[in-house]
Amino acid sequence: MTVTLDTRCCIVGGGPAGMMLGFLLARAGVDVVVLEKHGDFFRDFRGDTIHPSTLEVIYELGLLDAFLALPHQKVEQLTASVYGQSLTLADFTHLPVHSPCLLFMPQWDFLSFLATHGKRYPEFTVRMQTEVTDVVMRDGRIAGVTAVTPDGELEVRADLVVGADGRHTTVREHAGLATIASGAPIDVLWFRLPRTGDAVAATGGYIAPGAFLVVIDRDTYWQCGFVIPKGAFVAIQAAGLEAFRARIAQIAPSLAAATGALTTWDEVKLLTVQIDRMPVWYREGLLCIGDAAHAMSPVGGVGVNLAIQDAVATANRLAGPLRERRLTIADLAAVQRRREWPVRVTQRGQIAVQNNVVIRVLASAQARDRLPLALRLLRRFPWLRRIPARVIGMGVRPEHVATPDIHPS
C-alpha cells in the first residue's frame, strides 16, 4: 500500500543545498519535506569547507555562535609549498564579513546542525531512508515524487519539487532535463594520514615536479587529496602501495612518517571529477539547484558554497509564492537567472586553473628555477593576497538572507 503525503515543497536530497533550502523555507512559513535516501549524513567525498560567505549566511540567521561551538578548524590564511618554497596564497582576515576565515568541519555535523535547527519549525520535515524512484506527472507538470522507504512506498504530492540530490541526480534524469558536460582532465585520490608530533604541515598544498597534493588539518588527522591525471589510478595501483607512499613522502617530507598508516588501497578513495551544468534548471513543478544543476570541480573547494548560495537565492525568490500558492514557472526561471552567471564564471575559472595550472604541473617532471610571476607578486606584495581570498571566500555574487522568520524565538 502506498502512503501519500501532501506538502508545498518537496526537496529531494539532504545535502547542503537541500537542508539549507528546507530550513529557510520552513523558517518563512512554507510546509517543506526533505527526502534523504541514506539513514544518516556520514558519507565519503562530502566537502567540509565552510566559506566566509556561508558563515555570513549563518550569522544572518542568528546561529553563528551556536555554529562556531561545534568542533572545527579555523584557517585565516592558505599556504602552499611550491617547489620547496613556502608561500601564503590567500589572506581571509580582510574580508567584510563577521567571520573572515575558512572553517573545516565534517559535513555531517553541518547537515545535522541545519536539521536540528530546522526541526524547531512545525513546517519542517526530514524523512531519512527515503529514496526517490520517479517523478509524478499530472496535466503535463511535475506534481510530486514517488519513493521507497523501510515501511513501503511513499508518494509525496507538492506544488514544487526541488532536485538537490547531487551530481548523480535521479530527479534530473526522471524529469528529462538535459545537461552539458565540460569535461575534467583530473581525478583526486582522497585519503587520511594520522597526525604525528613532528609534522609541521598546515592546511594548504604542495606543488612539486609532476605532483599536486592538498592537505587539510583535521585536528587528529590530515585529510589529503592527491591530484592525478584522469584515468591514472589504475597505473598508480599497478606500481604498488609502497611506491605511492614513497611518492607522498617525497612531496611532503613532514608527512613521511604518517604514510606508513596506509596499509591497503581500500584506504585510498578515487574521487572522479566532473564539471557540468544544465542549460535549463527547471520545468513546471520542478527546479534543480546545487550539484544537481551544476557539478563543480574541487578546485577552490567551492562546491558547498555554491550550493548554499543557490539555496538562499531560491528561498528568497520562492518562499512568498510557495506560501501563498501563486508559484509560476517565471519564478523558477528567475532563480536560474540569478544564479546561472555566478556558476558559469566559477566553472570557467575552475576549468582555466585545471587546464593551465594543474595539468601543466602534473605533466612537468622538472622543478622550476623561478616561481611564476603571480606567486612572486603575492610574496612581494602581501596586500595582493586579499584578491584570491575574495574570489575563494566570497565567490561571485554572494547571497544574503531576505526571508522572514515567522516563528522568532
CATH uppermost class of the largest domain: Alpha Beta
The portion of residues assigned to helices is 25-40%
Sheet with the most strands?
8 strands, mixed
Q: How many separate structural domains?
A: 2
Average predicted confidence as pLDDT: 90
CATH-derived architecture of the largest domain: 3-Layer(bba) Sandwich
Give the terminus-to-terminus CA distance: 40 Å
What's the layout of helices and strands?
Blueprint: E1 3-12, H1 16-27, E2 32-35, E3 49-50, H2 52-60, H3 64-68, E4 73-75, E5 77-82, E6 85-91, E7 102-104, H4 107-118, E8 124-127, E9 131-138, E10 141-149, E11 152-163, H5 171-175, E12 180-181, E13 186-194, E14 204-208, E15 211-217, E16 221-229, H6 233-239, H7 241-251, E17 269-272, E18 276-277, E19 282-283, E20 286-288, E21 294-295, H8 303-323, H9 329-363, H10 373-380, H11 386-394
Parallel strand pairs: 1-2, 1-11, 2-8, 5-14, 11-20
Antiparallel strand pairs: 3-7, 4-7, 5-6, 9-10, 10-11, 12-18, 13-16, 13-17, 14-15, 15-16, 18-21, 19-20
Helix pairs in contact: 1-4, 1-8, 6-7, 8-9
Characterise this structure.
This protein folds into 2 domains: 233 residues, 3-Layer(bba) Sandwich (FAD/NAD(P)-binding domain); 87 residues. Helices cover 33% and strands 28% of the residues. Strands 1, 2, 8, 9, 10, 11, 19 and 20 form an 8-stranded mixed beta sheet that branches. The chain has a 7-stranded mixed beta sheet with strand order 6-5-14-15-16-13-17. The chain has a 3-stranded antiparallel beta sheet with strand order 3-7-4. A hairpin with a 2-residue loop joins strand 14 and strand 15. Helix 1 packs parallel to helix 8. The longest helix is centred in the C-terminal third of the chain and has 35 residues. The model has no long low-confidence stretch (mean pLDDT 90).
